[in-house]
Design goal:
By secondary structure, the chain is an alpha/beta fold. It has helices at residues 28-31, 34-39, 45-52, 58-70, 80-83, 94-99, 101-106, 184-197, 216-227, 241-244, 246-249, 252-268, 286-297, 317-330, 354-364, 434-443, 451-465; strands at residues 134-136, 139-140, 146-150, 203-207, 234-238, 271-276, 302-309, 334-340, 375-380, 384-387, 393-395, 400-403, 423-426. The protein has a domain at 17-112. The structure holds iron/sulfur cluster.
């Protein structure tokens, strides 16, 4: 029967890295070594050139260089494992690299960005106000029973759309990153102390950054301390590196340590899960599946995926379902959430409108098992995650959706109206009808918006892609 989406089983394949000039002589043993992977990450345009060489035209390298100096909120850091999943089916050409979904979010170029509105006027660093809600440095207490522990400000890979661009990674010419002020040992100690003093908290997301960048003995010791706190019942370790650097999670010491933690958790009735971040089916390779299964074999409760919905990467029924079936069937990773891309600077070209996200949620219903059908969620500032159909009202002309909530965040303890107020979220301006776009041009007050500069940037982007 003809259906809008045709399911087919997919055999995972590790693309051959030897098709790339810079890695022609790299052995399998090197490839599977986390040390080799970390030492050969692409960190700048020069490093990318040393991998792809003349396969890519100079205009692509120039486009990337320009983005880094004029738009990027994240510096470049991409492990070989992820580079190798770009244009996986053959020798990459410049056009294929431009169109590639993994490239589009890991190595954004200037011509990708929205030339008129690279940033929404209401975008901001730390758009979810996580630092405002720090109970102690790095511990965000936003929901009543759960907290987010940002253990470290680095990752083995930097994603162009990172919502924690305020803090995570190296500074770029556009963004001077904030720094933790406490020493790591004091910061982590203060987190443990806060959790001990607050028995209403039962759930800790142990994140960063990416816990794959924390030396394993230190991460193991921190989780050990969490497991000693009676009120903690759910622990989720957040690591995109399960996909970006699966070699890390396949190391013997990590596997044995996780097995020990899973054993303690089981005896104490605590669930440990790994939450990873995979946005494209191309990223689900045999090594990623091996790492996920190795973690499940340690006895942890689950490995779940929290992707980000990104235009040009995965914002179609086919892309989302292909990814979810590969995760669920071939890698034992549960498709859990897709977040709408947050309103950070420079993200307009990736963001989709709330009504588009609602249509995508509708489009993926009924194909996957119910327990593996991901929810598409909007992380509304000062509210938290909301399913995209949960909005209260929606001004489709100006692209403003209004949301409600049923709990106070930590900054609203004395705010009598917190639960009666409407909280707003904004669609990308490019997605609005002409009268909505005109409204924003008239009312924006956006500092620095100027039609001449916008035209100049459109011309420059066009020159780079022709
Ligand atoms: S892995 Fe997560 S925290 Fe790190 S750069 Fe990517 S999105 Fe940000």
């Amino acid at each position: 029967m003809d259906q809008p989406y045709g399911y087919r089983q997919r055999e995972l394949v590790e693309p051959d890295w030897r098709r790339l000039p810079g890695w022609r002589d790299v052995t399998e043993a090197d490839w599977e070594s986390p040390q080799w992977q970390r030492a050969h990450c692409v960190k700048n345009v020069k490093g990318l050139r040393s991998v792809f060489g003349d396969l890519l035209d100079d205009r692509f390298y120039a486009d990337l260089e320009r983005d880094q100096s004029e738009r990027a909120t994240m510096s470049i850091l991409v492990p070989p494992q992820m580079i190798n999943t770009m244009v996986p089916g053959g020798v990459p050409s410049t056009d294929a690299i431009y169109a590639d979904p993994v490239r589009r979010y890991m190595l954004p170029v200037f011509s990708d960005r929205d030339p008129d509105w690279p940033s929404h006027p209401r975008s901001s660093r730390d758009s979810l106000h996580e630092a405002e809600m720090w109970a102690v440095e790095g511990l965000t207490h936003r929901y009543p029973t759960k907290v987010l522990a940002e253990l470290l400000p680095t990752c083995p890979q930097y994603c162009g759309h990172c919502t924690r661009m305020d803090l995570v990674g190296n500074s770029t010419p556009q963004v001077d990153k904030h720094k933790f002020t406490l020493k790591p040992v004091d910061r982590l100690g203060a987190m443990i102390d806060y959790l001990r003093r607050n028995p209403g908290i039962r759930d800790v997301v142990v994140s960063g950054g990416d816990v794959g960048n924390m030396p394993w003995p230190r991460l193991e010791a921190f989780v050990d301390r969490l497991l000693e706190i009676d009120n903690i019942r759910d622990l989720r370790l957040a690591t995109k590196a399960l996909m970006g650097l699966p070699q890390h999670w396949l190391q013997d010491d990590v596997r044995h340590g996780m097995e020990r933690l899973a054993g303690i958790a089981r005896t104490r009735g605590v669930s440990i899960a790994i939450h990873t971040h995979i946005n494209s089916v191309q990223s689900v390779t045999p090594l990623v599946a091996r790492a996920a299964r190795a973690m499940l074999e340690t006895g942890i409760r689950d490995v779940r995926n929290q992707g980000v919905l990104l235009r040009g990467v995965n914002a179609s029924q086919e892309d989302l379902l292909d990814l979810c079936f590969a995760l669920q069937d071939e890698a034992s990773i549960l498709p859990y959430y897709f977040y709408m891309c947050d309103m950070i600077p420079g993200s307009e070209h990736w963001r989709v409108a709330v009504h588009e996200a609602q249509a995508l949620q509708h489009a993926i219903m009924g194909y996957l098992p119910g327990f593996a059908t991901p929810r598409i969620v909007c992380d509304v500032p000062y509210v938290g995650k909301r399913w995209v159909h949960q909005l209260d009202s929606y001004d489709r002309v100006r692209g403003i959706s209004y949301w409600t909530k049923n709990y106070r965040t930590s900054v609203e303890a004395d705010d009598a109206d917190a639960l009666n107020r409407l909280y707003d979220y904004y669609d990308p301006i490019r997605s609005l009808p002409a009268d909505g776009q005109a409204w924003w041009r008239e009312h924006t007050g956006r500092p620095g918006y100027d039609a001449v500069a916008a035209q100049r940037s459109r011309d420059a982007a066009a020159a780079l892609v022709t």
